[in-house]
Specification:
Strand order of the largest sheet: 1-2
CATH topology: Arc Repressor Mutant, subunit A
Order of helices and strands: HHHEE
Distance between the termini: 41 Å
Length: 74
Amino acid sequence: MPRAEPMWRVVRDDLRARISAGLLKPGDKLPSTRELAEQYDTSPVTVRKAVDILIEGGELLGRQGLGVFVSEKP
């Protein structure tokens, strides 16, 4: 029986899709980790992993004390 895709990948891919579709535009602030965890019905740790991967890839930008924002397109 195949395993389901890890939830952090689901969150990551959905956020990427929202950015690609223009639902999240450069400069837009993401909801808080807690709010995203509630939206995706998962833990804040799982959301944080997905967001951290997108930050490492340059798709999102984390600003200490301000939040996480969609990066400007290169």
